Amino acid sequence: xxxxxxxxxxxxxxxxxxxxxxxxxxxxxxxxxxxxxxxxxxxxxxxxxxxxxxxxxxxxxxxxxxxxxxxxxxxxxxxxxxxxxxxxxxxxxxxxxxxxxxxxxxxxxxxxxxxxxxxxxxxxxxxxxxxxxxxxxxxxxxxxxxxxxxxxxxxxxxxxxxxxxxxxxxxxxxxxxxxxxxxxxxxxxxxxxxxxxxxxxxxxxxxxxxxxxxxxxxxxxxxxxxxxxxxxxxxxxxxxxxxxxxxxxxx
Length: 251
Hints:
The chain is mostly helical and 251 residues long. The chain has 12 helices and no strands. It has one domain.
């Protein structure tokens, strides 16, 4: 489950890193900066592709589970999902048919905001376990790969706080995390649509800033991936799926 989205993300983020490495050897400043902009866009694109593919993967497995076990009741939002007619009449059978349908649903969309990520995926999560809330952000702050730039404080600083101070710190950390990724995604938009010139002056860029952005994106995707793997089996179980059904959809 989710092996292919993660494999593609790993390959694509490596391409972004390779561009940064290549840029460091370029002596023409304008060309070097544009290679770094390409790396930034590649990194954000790899993030978008991962979440699009991961949602298609989880959605197709859920629909397949419903097909195998019609008595289960899907969440209202999934019940309202409009499946392309081509998928229904397709000669493909089983999970592959629903995978194609789910991918078709995502083709005209992108997943380039934390709000959109939460909107798509939190329906697969239990209450109090959802992505990017003050209830769950503490674990992210304390993760071994977390950087202080992501949340505005280190794990050590967070752990040392009193319970009441931790609540305030979590709210501030979540706000900082959201603002950071809003800027990361906006910079990709600026590069594509305005040649990285959203106003008058060309925005500055550096290999250090680009490398940190790639690290930030890796952190987001890896943490979400771990959360998807941890929650999806429970999601199907809570729908009423039997062990046999879960096995058939590889969950």
